[in-house]
Amino acid sequence: MKLSESVLPRLPEGIAVPAYDRAALTAGIVHIGVGHFHRAHQAMYLDRLLAAGETDWAIWGIGVRSGDALATRLVEQDCLYTLTAKHPDGSTTSTVIGSIIGYTSAAQDGEAAIARLADPATKIISLTVTEGGYGIDAVTGAFSGRDDERITADLADPTSHRSWLGLVVQGLRRRRDTEAGPVTLMSCDNMQDNGHVTRTVLTGFVDAVAPDLRDWVEANMTFPNSMVDRVVPGTTAEDRERLRTQFDLEDAWPVTGEPFAQWVVQDDFAAGRPPLETVGVDVVDAVEPYEIMKLRLANGNHQASCFFGYLLGYEFVHEAIADPDIHAMLLRYIDTEAVPTLQPIPGVDMNAWGRTVLERFGNPQLRDPITRICEDTSNRIPRFLLPTVRDQLAQHGPVTICAAVVAGWARYAQGTDEQGRPIDVQDPRSAVVTPAARAESTVPGSFLGLTEIFGDLGDRPAFADRFREAFAELESAGTRALVRRLAG
């Protein structure tokens, strides 16, 4: 059976389906970037809320990229899809998610997308465009947009709406002109202070292309911070086949994830909000302590394990976590470098939380490719690892493992592994990162000289010396020797 509204009553036991009337729902949320993470996280929470009887907080998805596969695959199955939680013991729990009730490709129908953003029923515009999609300078934190060709195109021609920024600003202009009311712009991307970043980006873009809109934005919009957490690996052919075998169901765009999920949201909404706290979301006054904990212990551990894991020949994250040397190194990273930089949260044992992270990442059912974690590093390292470095340097603390992780990235970014096999380096700055990584072998300081990524860290001996030591050991003795030393 091909997944659609009509087949829901015929699905076998063992797969949960929406028990609410989707035709009676209103899309109070427009979400830009309906990728795997959104569908396994935010859309899941909203599905729970709709099941509890809410009707005004369904999701309408929007995509901005041309050639958008979701424009056909998801719409053809009435925007339904399956979410499967994979438990460490090998069992699975599958649910058909119904919270997305429509989808528009802005590349194919920009007018429809703008109209949806300007609809008075839309109270929240949410985003998952990845941490690299905001056009923020990694060092200064200011909006520039110069590293994103779609944002650059919209800065040159604001009517082209090739980027989410161009699209949203056109929607906001129409919203103002039609008196559609205030709206919240909520980032659900995995980055620190994502609400503050979103405000900075939007107002910077507005100042550049639509200064007449600035007063309306200040008076009618809020930008809550949020912290999101769930491991969501890419969908595989095996995942699709399992649905066919177990449920006789063909789903063109299923998603999978770990059982664990967490969402912390600042209570700062311009036009009302769904009662998210009733479905397990932490709605709080200040998100920062939670997000710093998550970024440094969860995302930081991903960065600390992925390059060494790849260079040691592992294909999946759980394999790297199971390596005794890597595991011991990560425990030292948690206890000696990351946790001492965290703000206390009442009732939370930071060291224990870090160990829970390793248990989660060690789930063999996720089969999360290490190469996924190795992607986009020039955007991830400055957010996930370098803040720990700077805080430790400020208190004269240890940075040995953090420096070694950066050295591992440099070795990986050279583009060949220890056996001389090519590495497909996926990074938006690969044109400068790879040459600098290769030059490091003969001209020490070349890699940390990328000030757009590292700022002044190349001039800080407490960090730069540890980086050079680790890089030299990688080239002379190899990855295993370095990781074993870091493991203590």
From TrEMBL:
Coiled-coil annotated residue ranges, if any:
none
Span of domain Mannitol dehydrogenase C-terminal: 287-474
What catalytic reaction does the record list? D-mannitol 1-phosphate + NAD(+) = beta-D-fructose 6-phosphate + NADH + H(+)
Q: Which Pfam families match?
A: Mannitol_dh, Mannitol_dh_C
Q: Which InterPro entries match?
A: 6-PGluconate_DH-like_C_sf, 6PGD_dom2, Mannitol_DH, Mannitol_DH/Oxidoreductase, Mannitol_DH_C, Mannitol_DH_CS, Mannitol_DH_N, NAD(P)-bd_dom_sf
Name the Gene Ontology biological process terms.
mannitol metabolic process
Look up keyword NAD and say if it applies: yes
- Recorded E.C. number(s)? 1.1.1.17
For this UniProt record, the keywords arranged alphabetically read as follows: NAD, Oxidoreductase
What's its top-level EC category? oxidoreductase
Gene Ontology molecular-function annotations? mannitol-1-phosphate 5-dehydrogenase activity
Provide the Mannitol dehydrogenase N-terminal domain boundaries.
28-277
Q: Where is the signal peptide?
A: none
Q: What does the sequence similarity comment in the record state about its family? A: Belongs to the mannitol dehydrogenase family.
| Name of the protein | Mannitol-1-phosphate 5-dehydrogenase
Source organism: Nakamurella flavida
